[in-house]
Design a protein that fits this description.
Strand order of the largest sheet of chain B: 1-2
Largest sheet of chain A: none
Number of helices of chain A: 7
Number of domains of chain A: 1
Number of strands of chain B: 2
Radius of gyration of chain A: 18 Å
Largest interface: A-B, 49 and 54 residues
Order of helices and strands of chain B: HHEEHHHHHHHHHHHHHHHHH
Radius of gyration of chain B: 22 Å
Distance between the termini of chain B: 33 Å
Shape of chain A: globular
Helix content of chain B: over 70%
Order of helices and strands of chain A: HHHHHHH
Oligomer: heterodimer
Largest sheet of chain B: 2 strands, antiparallel
Number of domains of chain B: 3
Amino acid sequence: MTLNVPSTDAGVADVMAILVLLTEFAMLRAPLLRSQVRLYAFQSLVVTGLAIFVATSRHIDELYVLALLTFVLKVVIVPGLVMRLLPDADVDLAESSILGVASMVLVAIAVAAFAFFAVGSLHVHSVALPTSALAIAAAVVLVAFVLIILRADVVSQAIGFFSLENGVSVASLVVAAGLPLVVEVAFLFDLLVAVVVFGVIMRVHHGRANSLSTEDLDRLKG
Amino acid sequence: MPALLVVIIVLPLAVAVITFFSPVRLAKVITVISGVVTFGLALTLIPEVVTHAQLREGSLLRIDSLSMVFLVATSFLYATTAIFAAGYLHLGQGKAGTRYGRRFYAGLNLFCWSMAAAPLVNGLALLWVAIEITTVVSALLVAIDDTDGATEASWKYVLIASLGLGIALFATIIMYYAGTTVFGSAYNLSYGKLLSGASHFSPDVVRLAFVLAVLGYGTKMGLFPVHTWLPDAHSEAPTPISALLSGSLLAISFYAILRYFQIAVRTIGPTFPRNTLLIFGIASLLLAALYLLSQRDLKRLLAYSSVEHMGILAIGMSFGAPVAVVGVLLHVLAHAAAKGTAFFGAGSVVRKFGTKDLGRIRGGIGALPWSGPMLVAAVLALSAMPPFGIFRSEFLIVSGGLSDSRDTVAAALVVLVTVAFFGLSWSTTQIMLSPDVSALPAGSAGSHPLSKGEVSPWIVVSMVIGLVALAILGVHLPSQLSQLLDHAARELGVPKR
């Protein structure tokens, strides 16, 4: 077996995907809800960059439109909406999670490693498309799950979902760049609607419980 | 005739917009009309689909026998729920009541529109979009009552279902990736294209996509272990919404899984997809049967019954004999009718007694002379009693399992369904048939004798329609419908190579 040296294109895509994954880890340890939202905006910016890069390197002009929409929606509108929904600074500190930060990061590392090996063991070969970025995207999705499960406030959970969607976006950019634009736009539109719904329910919850913690969301059982 | 597809897609959407601005009284009427017309149009499409195998309108809309089954189930519930809601909803006076009514009706129509759109769109990507719309609309409808319980339920629902759909989106991307080996890097995910090329896809990639799809859409379908949002959302939503969630939304998510199943059997053969569904199905059925035995809340009882029936659907698909697949598709229709009717009856009980607590409801048959007995009938129908449709469908599924020499699974299915029957009918007969109202402790809802009488004639009408439909499905399946089910089962079968 010969050693495969990744091409420059694949290398750049991988680096950007890894940047997305690292941002996901940073969210895991960000103590302030506001900093979490900022990290999400940064992550979306990297995804935008990846979209532009894929558009240039593979000459898919449609992706420029997608990059623009991603930027407007995920870097500007969604973080802006969530920031506006956050109440005043007194509850800005994220709720302490079940595990400490260090253990949380360790769990996330284990989960990410699992994603690498799981996708790697598929032995997917493709001439045009890098598969290592696909493994990284899967890791982003799983680490987002860790964030949602271990953080006990509604904002972290919502941000976790949005960043999971970023992970799927990375996957779609590296392995499904030719997906018709109408579909990609529909995905983004759906995300926007989901943000609004998350926001409405977050507001309602805060209005009723006067906190963003999920602790008192445990009445319904059995 | 394909133009009818456009009408079905446009009508509920237009009605949703109108009802948001019109007075509530008018909204009630046009929602009923829209529901009945949509159901009628769906029925007129059946013979067309049976003769032409598929109808297409542009590149975005397409219907074949498989999606037709789900369109019929959805539009049937749209019509009956609209009738039920007209009797169930009692709005407070003044501005708050009007606002609630407008939101409710606009949401109801939008929800039904998105569920009708899911089987009509052509392609896995658009299917995902339609199902994501059902999530966001129904999450708002679950929250509409603005109680602590409703807020908690809708948060769990929107978070868990969105995560599930995130996984389903991943499945969509992976399936697209599988297709790039055949179609090049730019193509659309329409069914015809995917099915034609499926036998040349990479098996490992399709396997991954299928498992992700079962997990992702299974979240919305209510399969164990990702069913956790389901009982909360079903019990806290307004009852018309519970009926739609249970009878139609879960089925639509199952439809999405079937689309992946259809592609997967062409690439990797039937064994792997069937075994995957079998594991999820048995686990769901087991969990639901046990929870049904110890349930204290009427609407949660019916919600767990939904988990049970979704488990039966998954197990039925795992048998693979054509007769079992016909049974599965008939089960989708019969479950929609039976669960709708049961929720309508539960709504009537909840309105009458002012509680969902099974321990505080007694003498239901005495208090509700029409909807009481019909609720008992609907629960018996859910437990697969003849002469109702679920008896026939479960009979087909089990006989398909036996003919496929999957005796152990078929036996397990029968045992678990019997356990579920016990739990379901025990609770229901207790609240409906035990006559003693005055023996309840003071302060509970039943402590003052309730007057005899129905909450609303509309509720009775909706339940009669549901039971008649169930009896038709059970006693004499119309020939067009049975042809439709046969064709759909053939579409799901393993093609001869």
